[in-house]
UniProtKB/TrEMBL annotation, chain A:
The keyword Hydrolase does not apply. PANTHER family: CYTOCHROME BO(3) UBIQUINOL OXIDASE SUBUNIT 3, CYTOCHROME C OXIDASE SUBUNIT III. One of its GO terms (cellular component) is plasma membrane. It is a multi-pass membrane protein. PROSITE patterns: COX3. Keywords: Cell membrane, Membrane, Transmembrane, Transmembrane helix. It comes from Lutibacter agarilyticus. Gene3D superfamilies: Cytochrome c oxidase, subunit III, four-helix bundle (1.20.120.80). The chain crosses the membrane at residues 30-51, 80-100, 112-132, 262-286, 307-325. GO terms for biological process: aerobic electron transport chain. It is found in: Cell membrane. Belongs to the cytochrome c oxidase subunit 3 family. This is Cytochrome c oxidase subunit 3. The lineage of its organism: Bacteria, Pseudomonadati, Bacteroidota, Flavobacteriia, Flavobacteriales.
From TrEMBL, chain B:
It is found in: Cell membrane. It is a multi-pass membrane protein. It comes from the Bacteria. The keyword Cell inner membrane does not apply. Its main location: membrane. The chain crosses the membrane at residues 14-35, 51-71, 83-101. This is Cytochrome C oxidase subunit IV. Keywords: Cell membrane, Membrane, Transmembrane, Transmembrane helix. GO terms for cellular component: plasma membrane.
Amino acid sequence: MDATIATKSSEQTWGGGNNKPLGASYGKMMMWFFILSDALTFSGFLGAYGLMRFKFIDSWPIADEVFTHFPFMHGVHAPMYYVALMTFILIFSSVTMVLAVDAGHQLKKGKVTFYMFLTIIGGIIFLGSQAWEWKNFINGSYGALQLNDGKIIQFVDASGHQVALESFAKSSHSERTQHTKSKGLWFVEEAALPAYSVNEVIAGFEAHPEITIRTEKLNTETKTKTIVPREQAMSYLNEAKAVVVGANLKVNEYGNTLFADFFFFITGFHGFHVLSGVVINIIIFFNVIIGTYEKRKSYEMVEKVGLYWHFVDLVWVFVFTFFYLV
Amino acid sequence: MAAHAQEHTSHTKLIWKVFIILSVITIVEVILGIIKPDSLHLTTILGTSPLNIIFLVLTLVKAYYITWFFMHMADETKSLRRSVVWTAVFLVIYLATLLLIEGSYLNDVLGPLVKWNY
């Protein structure tokens, strides 16, 4: 039996008494149970994502077609590379964190300072990378049409690759301008208009015989989206109600809106964890510098924030798998 | 386990070893994710493709290495380890099983009602 019960002690109330339940200090044990509850929260989110994904298993967006950007390689189709880079950044900052904890065990203040600094830098780089990923997702890459029933229609060339709206849409000088409070009803607002109207996209489609459309429906044999022959395309396009460029919480050019909702929510929640991890790391970093733990002769605080930091990495491992790989 | 031995000795070697293992697993995942060999991607085993099973297993291996060696779970007492790990594993499997079964059911019921031709 290595489990014991905490007993009252007059001196170390905050430390949980002299007996250490489960053989760990009070703070470390509580950090473990916080991590357990936070892990269950993330499981709930990823579970909900799984539920919706199974519900729409035959029309879910293909991640390889959504996340294709890489810095300084504009227009190059580079799926997975960027998120792999982000994963490495986070794993590496986990390594520097565990090196800081290790140096703390040997009471080497200089080493702890250096490795904590690297960890913080890694966390900041990861946050920046995530912001860039969000920016690409929000801005979109090709643009699409939304039908009256909410389905998304994308345009492909003869080889089956997606084509961007601006490469074929015909711009006609329309009188339509964005509605603002100053131009009409003061209580009615309108979002910025897309660069092309539905009619301009359809006119462009008719002028380019090499282009056809594809629906969200997945072909279960080849795991690719179903391409509609050009002869039947017009019956789909007649149903179009809006031009969609990029993704937000209401509409998503890559397909099901729920994909965008879960992406923003889960990576956003994870990113917020990274942000709070960076803030906590910075606080502990300054505590190390001013010698708080040197005086205490124990770097356990570094170990506790380290636990949280590794947990953030652990969650990313699962987010990476369920959003990008599976 | 070696809870008190770590006070003086350094674990740097072990840390870099774990880093290399995690990196190799990630590289394998990324390569498989880019190539997606048809034999693994388009075939079915246990209700999904073998590729998905591979990804899931590799993810769990990564989670094990992070928890055991980066978070030093290996050095904690058996009772702490079990109260954290078993609780999480049991509840996550329970939740995931129910939600995924229900998701498939929703697809079975609602899928045929969705119109794809106009």
